## 1
Amino acid sequence: VKTILITGATDGIGLESAKQLGEQGHRLLLVGRNPAKLDAAAAAVRSAGASSVETLETDFAELASVRKLADQVLSSVDHLDVLVNNAGTVFDKRVVTVDGLEATFAVNHLAGFLLTERLKDLMGASAPSRIVFTSSVGHFQGTMDFDDLGFERGYSIMKGYSRSKLANVLYTRDLAAELAGTGVTVNCLHPGTVATHIWSGAPWFARPVLAVVKRVAMISPEQGGARITYLATGPEVAGVTGGYFDNDRQLAPSAIAQDAAVGRRLTEVSRELVGLA
Ligand SMILES: NC(=O)c1ccc[n+]([C@@H]2O[C@H](COP(=O)([O-])OP(=O)(O)OC[C@H]3O[C@@H](n4cnc5c(N)ncnc54)[C@H](OP(=O)(O)O)[C@@H]3O)[C@@H](O)[C@H]2O)c1
């Protein structure tokens, strides 16, 4: 029985993966922002067969809330086999969080970054252990401008999203290098184009087309979730680290994603932004 924490566990691929991991009989710690959805997710994961289920309410748009989550985990768990950083969202218009950060970058990258930095010693003490990030094929469009990380000079939903997903790949690779030889593996994935609620964040004019694409061309949340489950507990990837996976296969991520100097700088800048520097 493994102890597995999964964020964004209340909907979409995170919820489906949590149910699949529950079916495998593990102990699940489910993280979400909505208490009613957390209760429903816990019930579903329990009835799937999880040996135990706990819920942790956290808003990833607030660093204080993520700090509280890390404190709660560190005080209640002495062993963590798998950390799945999956929570993610899109913002049609530029939004600034209570911490003064562009919200896509804050929710999709900085929150998981802060949680992982706070839990990485625990992961080391729990080795062999695994850290997984849900990135996206969208990272191929991503740019990393350290002089304007928050798009004060011009925002679009895709620019914001693809940068945040590029950050997931860069941090995966930088952390994998840092943790090489410790028995902690770090990998990320594109889950496929999945029919989940994330698409309701798209601009209004794209929605009619998306509704059709969702029905005919997207995979189900169960199928997308299975790709997280593969990286979380699949015996095939034991010992594999620093990888970007698509359809359960390791592929080369974008050229910027492979630039170790950019990855190092992102880690340093992120440490400052979340108050760990
Ligand atoms: N769907 C795709 O085609 C696709 C493709 C590539 C990558 N991805 C990635 O897959 C991951 C999961 O997305 P999904 O498609 O499953 O979408 P989803 O159905 O919208 O699920 C997103 C999850 O993240 C949670 N979340 C969002 N904002 C949060 C916040 N501020 N604080 C805490 N939790 C928050 C949501 O909580 P609520 O239940 O409260 O909303 C939900 O549990 C994301 O990282 C996304 O970027 C998806």
## 2
Amino acid sequence: MTLEPTPRKLSRRDLLNRGAALTFLAAGGAALTERLTGNASGAHDVGGVPLPPGHPPAVYLRIAATDGHILLPGRDAPLYVFGFNPIEPVDMSMAQAIEENKGLVKNPAPIIGVDQYADLYLTVSNLGFQVRPDLDDSHTVHWHGFPNQNAIFDGVPEVSIAVPPGRSFPYFYRVRREGTFMYHCHFEDTEHVQMGMDGIIYVRPAQNGTSLGGYTKFVYNDGDGSTGYDREFALLFNELWSLAHDHLESIQENLWTDYKPDFWVINGRAYPDTIKLNNDASLPEQPTSSLMQVNPDERVLMRLVNLGYEQDPLELPGLDMKVVGEDATLLRGPGGADLSYTARIVYIGPGEARDVLFTAPSYDASKPGDTDAWGPYNRYLLRNRNYQALTNGGAAGLGGQVTEVRVYDPSGPNGPVPEQAMANETYPGGGA
Ligand SMILES: [Cu+2]
């Protein structure tokens, strides 16, 4: 992508072949390791606004838009979905991208983490639908909450452009604000978001890497370490109306006013699948775990995002949740007043995000828990407190929007769980 003042025709290679990519977090296979390589020069001032000295290099990512299927406990048939899928390398030909990715999604869309002040080029390639080739739907990316200066990169098709089948478009972002955001397709968005075209994107603050209050990783540029954390988990909450998905697969109309969800998911999985590890072989299109494997005394960040259409009241019985950020905003008032709060229930409306910290307690063998292949642990459940959201299509037993925090015994056979190399990292031994 270029915003150079001289008009010229852009080739696809101009758009795509701009250096190495930031690998998506939890994107699957070996790609799980986050590596921020950027382009060699680093300097990538595009719009005439100088970047601060020492800013991170530009980041190049590419995602495919297509359809696929996910698996839900309590339901025999795979559920038809739309979604995004990371394409690597970013300059792969459209023919190869279609060959490798058409009909396969990642649900939710890849978790994207970028550093504050890095320019982000996020190319969307529309591969078309495998199951519904009769549909010629376009797709877009809307970075929800991003202070865009121009509608062209905002992804709202009515006031901008959309990407038709067989075409690509690079979205460009000058990443200036830190915090937890989300992104989703905005084309026929009631349908496309429900069908799975949504994900979490977050911006790491420039303060990261400095030492404040005993931490080197922070949610925001807080100046005092109050948002510092040891371990982070990005959790996307959705509810699914399976009938609408079945209708789409079988070429039937939907009445969206009849919206009646029957599955509730975190990162595209319903409990107990939520606690399977990343890239579990039984869930090929749902690679992202929600299991939180932690050590005693660690401060843990949960980036909670709701892109369903219901409000989610979330509780973590036994642990206090401290809300330090709402909708990508540090909770500070005029004069720096601390507006963070501690809650037993955190309410998240549709399209909202919360940055929540908790401190893991000591391991106590007398408290509820179990032993997995990593070692003995205490179990705490993060769950929707609405009983209706704790079922898988009405099947018996606990399901839906539930996941686990496992606080391990540091003197267990494998010792403490290692430091995270990326958000949502899991370690052998977790799982349903
Ligand atoms: Cu779409």
